């Protein structure tokens, strides 16, 4: 996508005509007001993009600066707290993503192997003002008593999110994984925070696939081991025992956590600071 094309699409998306139309269809603005949706969104975007800890007062101040008239705080607050504004911004984001995404992933490689979707699951935390801790508790109370986490399920084929959730940072990441029965013929990619053996078993039973990073503390039983395509004699031993001998070598392993439980593939990539452990049910 050319830069000029992106610029033109963004200009059309946030044009005054389009924003007023969205304001009416969302129910945010039924009749013309001095406080327009255009001015309000400009103040919101400017405050959130330029200030590290923006709050409502900052948005109000930006709004007053760009306007040619005095805007009291109460009418400003009455407008910005409307549920319709949330729906308006949500629709604006959806439209932006649909216009600006470009498909770059080769689907054929996956579909030929029976995978119809590839989803990426991840989360990012953001610190808030400390006084919000009773509502948005953070995991690291000494550093950020108040924090939120943005949980995202991203469709790599369509190159856009299919689920977005914002919750207190203290809540476990695993609760926001896609429900296993929705992952038939789907490959799920996730970081170590989403590692959950019970969930992996459910995904496998429902016809789905996963490739998830694990932390270095895992210690399953190794049932077979390969290095550079050559089968190793070490088997039916614990992972940590194997790595005492071969920590410097990349390994492809078959592992099991339960004696009669499912077997998974484990890819080990050595690194002095942070070795990589990838667990998958892909064959």
TrEMBL record:
Domain Transposase IS4-like: 145-247
TM helices/strands, residue ranges: none
Keyword Zinc: no
Record's keyword terms, sorted: DNA recombination, DNA-binding, Transposition
Pfam families linked: DDE_Tnp_1
UniProt-listed InterPro entries: RNaseH-like_sf, Transpos_IS4, Transposase_11
Keyword RNA-binding: no
SUPFAM superfamilies (alphabetical): Ribonuclease H-like
Family: Belongs to the transposase 11 family.
NCBIfam families in the cross-refs: transpos_IS4_1 (NF033592)
Protein name: IS4 family transposase
Source lineage: Bacteria, Pseudomonadati, Pseudomonadota, Gammaproteobacteria, Alteromonadales
